[in-house]
Write a structure and sequence with these properties.
Elements lengths: L22 H52 L3 E6 L4 E8 L7 E5 L8 E6 L5 E4 L9 E7 L2 E7 L5 E9 L10 E11 L2 H7 L3
Length: 202
């Protein structure tokens, strides 16, 4: 008869079982993770807001230059009509890619933008007219906001550049009330004129 070998392992005095985490250690880990989340989440939100407003500004500038190129090519004036109530603008007379029977409407309230179009000042009708030479026919400004991050676009009649101001707001806004706490930087961007000629180049 073959003897049965025991597989039971005895723990001698010099050996130790693996030590488990104590309740205090687990609580400390949870607290550290919570602190990291409190620090990281606002920074992520701020970075996301910067991306959104910058993307919206680049879209607006691209559409101004495209409209100027179309006007220059056709030697006829064109208009961009801003609608701050609906956070959108219309490229008047330019067919929508999705529905050629309708004017092209860009909705800044949806992805990938998700921003607020505030404080538009282009006369009483919030329209930006562009001449048949591809030049801006009216001065004005608009502000794009997301959270406490904002960009102000300033257009000057007859100018071939727009001013972009990077703003910090005292509080988030969903309407035309924009309270600026700080102007972080200012830069220029080409619009109309030479920019429209480049956009018109095959």
């Amino acid at each position: 008869m073959t003897p049965i070998k025991s597989t039971f392992t005895h723990v001698t005095a010099g050996q130790h079982r693996p030590r488990a985490f104590t309740l205090i250690e687990l609580v400390m880990v949870i607290v550290i993770m919570a602190i990291m989340a409190v620090v990281a989440i606002p920074r992520f939100a701020s970075a996301s807001n910067r991306y959104r407003v910058d993307a919206a500004v680049q879209q607006i500038l691209a559409d101004v230059n495209m409209t100027a190129a179309v006007a220059n090519r056709a030697s006829t004036s064109r208009t961009i009509s801003f609608d701050p109530d609906n956070d959108s603008y219309t490229l008047v007379g330019q067919a929508s890619p999705s529905d050629p029977a309708q004017d092209w409407v860009i909705d800044l309230s949806v992805e990938p933008f998700g921003v607020n179009l505030a404080r538009v000042t282009f006369g009483a009708d919030d329209d930006l007219p562009i001449s048949g030479y591809g030049l801006l026919q009216e001065s004005g400004e608009l502000t794009v906001t997301a959270g406490r991050t904002a960009r102000r676009l300033i257009f000057t009649q007859g100018s071939t550049s727009a001013t972009i101001e990077d703003l910090s707001l005292t509080e988030p806004t969903d309407d035309d009330t924009v309270t600026v706490s700080n102007t972080n930087s200012t830069r220029k961007a080409a619009v109309g004129g030479a920019a429209s000629a480049m956009a018109d180049t095959p």
